[in-house]
Specification:
The complex is a heterodimer of chains A (70) and B (322). Chain A has no helices and 8 strands. Chain A is an all-beta fold. The longest helix of chain B is centred in the last third of the chain and has 20 residues. Chain B has 322 residues and is an alpha+beta fold. Classes of the chains: A mainly beta (70), B alpha+beta (322). At the A-B interface, strand 2 and strand 5 of A face helix 6 and strand 8 of B.
Chain lengths: 70, 322
């Protein structure tokens, strides 16, 4: 099991996966944005998306868990 | 060799330099000189030749060639490798591909034209051939991902400072739009590739409208965009502006990576057109309205809403109210 963690504070611009999706390590799963800098967040390991804790438009803090992959 | 020949031609311009002199200075045959001259002509250099007196440079092309750029470059990191292309889909996209393959920090990708220049949120940035500066910078700094968004302000200061140095009174709209009389002159799109605690690379894409032709502007841009040439007497040398931006970016970047962000923030504030203004902030359908009161040490916008509450803004589209 792996948590996908926000490396910076910002806003969730897009969630690119749904619960149940299979992801490979380094797949883009979320795009964060802060001060007009866009940052794709990559799957830390391969697996299945178990839980998505944020929606597009949410503000997130650094180190917040965004997605749980199992 | 190309650069050396151009520099000889330039140092003699508007006069002639003989093929013999070029060949002896550079230690190549006169036939080789002639071949190089032909290549330069293919690159758009207007060179007159005369059988007895030699060659004369009439005009250099308005192209962002590296050997032309080098004449004005003083930077240490930014631009130590330059990739020049006539046409690309997007310089940010090319930069990303190169960064993935290990391109070094400071690599700059320059294009005369972008066919699918990237704006924010998947919008296009109108980038016709020769009418602006469209380029992207690859950075691989040791800063933490959490600090990386500050680079968007650093880039804005580099562009705004350069344009002010040549007499164009631009302002910065939070976080990094470069405006003049409320119209957009330049835009910056930064993209990060990071792991949880490490930046793999940052791409800073910059687009500057130099001489957009009003007749062919798409409608949605015509009302909000402007060009440098509307504000500069005597025309704009694209190559000099580009070199100055890279030079300024270089010193600001070194200042930033050695802990000098607060100085840069002061410059940002000096050039801001957002602070102490009433603003609306649009973020995915929600709108906040109030006074843009300050920016904090991370560069976030501090909004004093009309109900008196304070909101720290990291994201959203700012519109200035009068």
């Amino acid at each position: 099991m792996a948590d996908l963690i926000a490396p910076m504070s910002g806003k969730v611009q897009k969630v690119l996966v749904a619960v149940g999706d299979k992801v490979e390590v380094d797949d883009e799963v979320i795009i964060l944005e802060a001060m007009k800098m866009e940052s794709p967040i990559f799957a830390p390991e391969s697996g299945t998306v178990k839980e998505i804790k944020v929606n597009a438009g949410d503000n997130v803090a650094e180190e917040q868990v965004l997605i749980v992959i199992e | 060799m190309k650069a050396k020949i151009i520099s000889l031609l330039k140092s003699h311009s508007p006069g002639y330099i003989s093929g013999e002199e070029i060949s002896s200075i550079l230690g190549i045959s006169r036939t080789a000189v002639w071949k190089h001259i032909q290549k330069l002509r293919d690159n758009g250099y207007q060179i007159e030749s005369h059988s007895r007196i030699g060659y004369r440079l009439v005009q250099a092309p308005d192209k962002l060639y590296q050997h032309e750029l080098n004449e004005y470059m003083k930077s240490k990191i930014i631009g130590r490798k330059i990739v020049y292309r006539e046409v690309v889909d997007s310089t940010n996209k090319v930069a990303k591909e190169m960064a993935q393959k290990g391109a070094e920090e400071g690599t700059v990708i320059i294009a005369e034209e972008q066919t699918a220049g990237k704006g924010r949120l998947g919008r296009l940035w109108f980038s016709p051939a020769g009418q602006g500066l469209w380029f992207s910078i690859i950075l691989r700094s040791q800063i933490s991902p959490a600090d990386a968004p500050k680079m968007t302000l650093v880039a804005a200061v580099a562009v705004a400072r350069t344009l002010r140095e040549i007499g164009i009174p631009v302002g910065i709209k939070w976080p990094n739009d470069i405006l003049i009389r409320e119209r957009k002159l330049a835009g910056i799109l930064t993209e990060m590739n990071a792991e949880i605690d490490k930046v793999n690379y940052l791409i800073v894409g910059i687009g500057i409208n130099i001489s957009l032709n009003g007749d062919v502007l798409p409608d949605e841009i015509a009302s909000v965009a402007t060009s440098m040439e509307e504000y500069a007497e005597g025309g704009i040398s694209r190559i000099r502006v580009l070199a100055s931006i890279l030079n300024n970016f270089d010193s600001l970047y070194q200042e930033f990576t050695t802990g000098g962000f607060s100085n840069i923030l002061d410059s940002w504030k000096d050039m801001s057109v957002t602070l102490n203004r009433r603003v609306k902030i649009h973020a995915l359908g929600k709108i906040d309205e109030g006074l843009a009161f300050d920016i904090d040490e991370d560069g976030a916008l501090i909004l004093k809403k009309d109900d008196g509450t304070i909101k720290r803004v990291l994201s959203g589209e700012v519109s200035l109210r009068t």
